[in-house]
Amino acid sequence: MKKANAEDGIKSLYKVMRVLDCFSVKDDVLSVSDIARRLDIPQSTAHRLLSSMRSAGLLEQDRRRSGYRLGLKLFSLGSTVLATMELHRISVRTMEDLYRITRMSVHLALFDGQGVLVVRKIGSAKELSTSLNLMEQAPAHCTGVGKAVLAFQPSEAIDRLFETDLVRYTSNTITERFAFDRELGTIVERGYAVDNEEHNIGIRCVAAPIFNEAGTAFAAISVSGTAWELMPGAVEEISKTVKLHANALSAELGFSGHHAVLAHHADKTPA
């Protein structure tokens, strides 16, 4: 009986996680029928699940738009996670230094296996209206922070990325697999990534990966500016500063400087 109860609990937790994964910045309010359709479950089941999650504070009802949105309980839990996360704690000084040197917007983002989540941001005096917002989930394939981390992921992670068609945000967005592999190879070779107006027209970004003690790239730090501020020559110069600060954060996290450069990316580096 206890084993059955444990299995039921795991199944219920899995359902809750599936519901939470349905929400995004774009889809911030979803109806019962939206959830039922996305999870392929009966509407009655979806209604009971959403009601239970609302009672627990995980969801809130948005009666104006006739649906549910993520609850403040999740924000509270997320804030607790960030407050106790070592990278979030030690990144403050490094990001402030980067801002003082570049006078451009600085972002710290975590990789969640598919996209990136911006967890800290220091804006420039000329705040970019198109720059990423704090706690915003962003695509990995067309952002500097995302590509910086993806370049050091195993092949399976890249395969998962291409299981669905990648969104083309601008004419510069790389959505073809071979070209993307070549891009990742270049990032591995030089140690930094560039978002060349791939997510927003008029915005360039230079990012470098952050490694943990195990040698896994799990986060990245970036500097963003307008296309005219970050001309090719400026990108090369700023990349040195971004890499230096990313390496310092990696070292503080216990990274020894040894990680496996993934052969499937390195082999595809442009000649």
Task: Write a short abstract of this structure.
By secondary structure, the chain is an alpha+beta fold. It is 46% helix and 18% strand.
Q: Spell the H/E element sequence.
A: HHHEEHHEEEHHHEEEHH
Q: What integer is the average pLDDT?
A: 85
Low-confidence runs? 260-271
Give the biggest sheet: 6 strands, antiparallel
Q: Domains counted in the coordinates: how many?
A: 2
Tell me the Rg in angstroms: 20 Å
Question: What is the first-to-last residue Cα distance?
Answer: 62 Å
Instruction: Kindly report the name of the CATH homologous superfamily of the largest domain.
Output: GAF domain
At the first level of CATH, the class of the largest domain is Alpha Beta
Describe the global form: globular
Which structural category do the helix and sheet elements fall into?
Answer: alpha+beta
Q: What is the third-level CATH name, the topology of the largest domain? A: Beta-Lactamase
Q: What is the percentage of strand-forming residues?
A: 15-25%
Mind explaining what this structure looks like?
The structure is a single chain. It contains 10 helices and 8 strands. It is of the alpha+beta class. The protein folds into 2 domains: 74 residues, Arc Repressor Mutant, subunit A (Orthogonal Bundle), CATH 1.10.10.10; 182 residues, Beta-Lactamase (2-Layer Sandwich), CATH 3.30.450.40. Strands 5-4-3-8-7-6 form a 6-stranded antiparallel sheet, with helices on both faces. It has a two-stranded antiparallel sheet with strand order 1-2. α2 crosses α3 and α5 runs antiparallel to α9. It is globular, with a radius of gyration of 20 Å. The C terminus is likely disordered.
